[in-house]
Amino acid sequence: MASLCRPGGIVFVKGYFFGFDLLDFLDAAKDWSAGLNPYLRSRFVTPPPSLLVGMALQHISSATASLVFFAVNLAAVFGSVWMVGRFVKMGRIALFLMLAIASLYYPVVYLLERGNLDGLMLILLCSVVVVRNQWLKGLFLASSVVLKIYSVLLMVPLLAGRRFRLFLLTVLSGVLLLLPFHSLLHPFLQSALSRTQEFTAVENLSPAVVLGSLCKHALGKTIFILFWAATFFRASWRYSMFPLEERFLVCLPWMAAFPLQVYPYSGVLLLPVLAWRLGPRQIAANVVSLRVFLVGFLLVGTQQGALNEYFQSLVHSHRLFPFLNVVGMVLVLTSLAFGGSLPYCKNEDTPTLEPV
Question: Please, how many CA atoms are within 13 Å of residue 77, restricted to the half-sphere of its CB?
Fold first, then answer.
């Protein structure tokens, strides 16, 4: 709302241009095609298979590639929300409301403007939830892990639920996907380790970085890592009696709050969790925890650039609004780890949200 009211008009993604992140993938793909090390570029930090995105688009102009990838991300986000909404048996009206929320959610706007991989990540992770074929589940999960490493968290419910066959299928698929890029694994690990040293509280969803800015860097990160791990395992235990697919959905916020630098587009991972939380089997759960989750969801979607510009004369601080995203993420994790919920029931008689 601040973005709509500010004197200069709407701020979508402050300080960047359309397709800003996609350009890194295009340049890295050109380097690799020329026999160069793409990880010499400081901004290319994703696993080697992500080069396939740049390779698929490198033969068209960067402007056209940005438009194509914009359409891909938009379809991926809307398709993911629709799939999960149908999976949790939302009514048609509720589904269209979820799509409206997605279209207005700042992490989605940020993703579409920047052109990063989180739209593809979202559709892969939601496909893991929705598809029934075990081979496809393993392939989709492995594809998400080799595109962005935070998806490895989904291996925890696999092992906890003793789904060893699916675990082995995922590992095998991941190895096969990485084989063509084996020469880049060492440069990638070096790049990933150097990224853990980044230290900024601007455009960040992970509380690890913000806590580091409030106290000694190592101490702040340690505090959050302990909180992150404790809430993750608490939520894993709390939902241990739920179906595996729903436990996958519960894991998504911990990916968006990974103890590294996490940019606002990773907030799109909360959309399928919102659809699940508002589904007919969860909507009647503990109302307090639902309200805490919704407040956290809204704060994660705060557009800090617009708020800083619009309210700077009132608060005289550039440090207030970046904290809102982080507080929202903490509330989301806390609500899922400690909030009440109904025991899962296989009874399909629960009514949908759509009125009869």
Answer: 32
